[in-house]
Amino acid sequence: xxxxxxxxxxxxxxxxxxxxxxxxxxxxxxxxxxxxxxxxxxxxxxxxxxxxxxxxxxxxxxxxxxxxxxxxxxxxxxxxxxxxxxxxxxxxxxxxxxxxxxxxxxxxxxxxxxxxxx
Amino acid sequence: xxxxxxxxxxxxxxxxxxxxxxxxxxxxxxxxxxxxxxxxxxxxxxxxxxxxxxxxxxxxxxxxxxxxxxxxxxxxxxxxxxxxxxxxxxxxxxxxxxxxxxxxxxxx
Lengths: 118, 108
Description:
The complex is a heterodimer. Chain A has no helices and eleven strands. By secondary structure, chain A is an all-beta fold. In chain A, the strands form two sheets. In chain A, strands 2, 4, 5, 6, 9, 10 and 11 form a seven-stranded mixed beta sheet that branches. Chain A has a four-stranded antiparallel beta sheet with strand order 1-3-8-7, with no helix packed on it. Chain B is mostly beta strands. Helix content of chain B is 0%, strand content 44%. Chain B is built from no helices and nine strands. Chain B has strands at 9-12, 18-23, 33-37, 44-47, 61-66, 69-74, 83-90, 97-99, 103-107. In chain B, the strands form two sheets. In chain B, strands 1, 3, 4, 7, 8 and 9 form a six-stranded mixed beta sheet that branches. Chain B has a three-stranded antiparallel beta sheet with strand order 2-6-5, with no helix packed on it. In chain B, a hairpin with a 6-residue loop joins strand 3 and strand 4 (44-47). Chain A binds chain B through residues 35, 37, 44-47, 50, 58, 60-61, 94, 99, 102-106, 108-111, and chain B through 31, 33, 35, 37, 42-45, 48-49, 54, 84, 86, 88-90, 95-102.
């Protein structure tokens, strides 16, 4: 059974850093495209970043240069390193798996809340 | 970057048909995917590749895509269908993943 379990969220001050983790089971993270998607309170879904199975990475303009997506194949875990955090980064962060060879998300984690506030 | 436009809200009586649109420039040339999100929960895929349904999704959910508009149709709407619905496409020319703004479906 495919499962995605996020962790690492919490309260952080503006300018601070946080690393989110997404532990995967039931499949190999390196075999699928993987993404982070966030949702600010009361707002819609916003794509944040993707890592392709080959290792290439892409970011939304809103986080480019501040966030880094990566994976640890030995731990079968996806990460999102978030630096220089701003109030507007406050959101629930979901990790999501692309269906193999497709461009839609077939599995999502339960999400982890990041709050950026002084 | 590619933009997807959804109506903020749609209301429908139980047993009727709800249609949620997703507009985009020549969206008919892209594959459109739809997600349902209930309060406090992660999104769930309900339609992929314009009109296909994942296993476990009722046949009441269907989709179409042509020209500049894609449509998610929910037949015989039930109270449990009340949720936010998001369309999504892959756009190789800019941000690869694009979501619509979401539509809140209210069952009257």
